[in-house]
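Hi there, hope your week has been kind to you so far. Thanks so much in advance, here it is:
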Amino acid sequence: MLGSICLIGCQSSKKGGSKLSQRFVFHKGAMGTVFTITLYAPDEETGKRAAEAAFARVVQLNDMMTDYDRDSELMRFCLTPHGQPVKLSEDLFTVIAKAQWVAEQTDGAFDITLGPVIRLWRRARRQREVPPGELIAAAKLASGYQNLKLDAKKRTATLLKPDMVLDLGGIAKGYAAEAALTVLKQHGLNRAMVAASGDLAIGDAPPGRSGWNIGIDSIDAAEGQHSRIVSVKNCGLSTSGDTEQFTEIDGQRYSHIVDPKTGLGLRERIGVTVIAKSATDSDAYDTAASILGAERGLNFIEKQTDTAALVVVLKDGKMQQIESKRFRRFPQLKER
């Protein structure tokens, strides 16, 4: 993906000869990607036990929020007749409520009700064929964040139009990574990071370090190198872009990120890395900023408390990197 991210230079270490700072890494496939937990624990068994509990939480959330399973809580809600309020679990309501807030702040650039359109685009990517305009128009009629009503007091949600389908692909992985990090902390392991592809939930810094060193790749960086390396802790960090997830149809490149206005994948080459208070926020914000474009996307980021972004755009074969004001506050490291 454009501006992908990875962990840099956090090797195993010991403090005073003890085993209080051993580094362990665990992996598990979920939500269409691989979740990677990097943590520091007194011994492998302690780390493994905590990681298994964290992965179990991810699986629970996946089973709840996937739109690929008709029996998930999300899809049971979507299959409810429109106009009928449905009480949701705390997790699902929290994610939907946050998504709706971002939709309101971005005038619908981020829109989880775009499920019917996204399903068309998934098929288009597989078959390398742009959906007919009439199908896109029909799918858009069954979308629109204004057609999803929430009642926070009753914790209910109501779909106001028939055939609506919610897609949480732009926020669920960040929420799951954040939830997994919470589980690790409950096990007493605060020096940890959970990575779900381009979405990171980051805890306390590794022993002897001021933060986790995260490499941000870019379209002009040589293989194995990074255009930026930032040091961060206790935050969410997400990157959205199209270097890996894209398709070409009739000579036109389309991103996997769908623009609600056109019903098509983005054609602008743009990558956005967001650092926010939580991985739930960073996951949603990077998608929203990608759809808004560099100028409007950065304006949105600047309005969010304790949030920063790096936007990369490719125009006329030339790459431009644009930082938000707060992005410059994070320590920048040089490639070794």
Notes: The CA atoms of residues 95 and 172 lie 7 Å apart. Residues 5-14+22-62+171-333 form a domain with the T-fold fold (CATH 3.10.520.10).
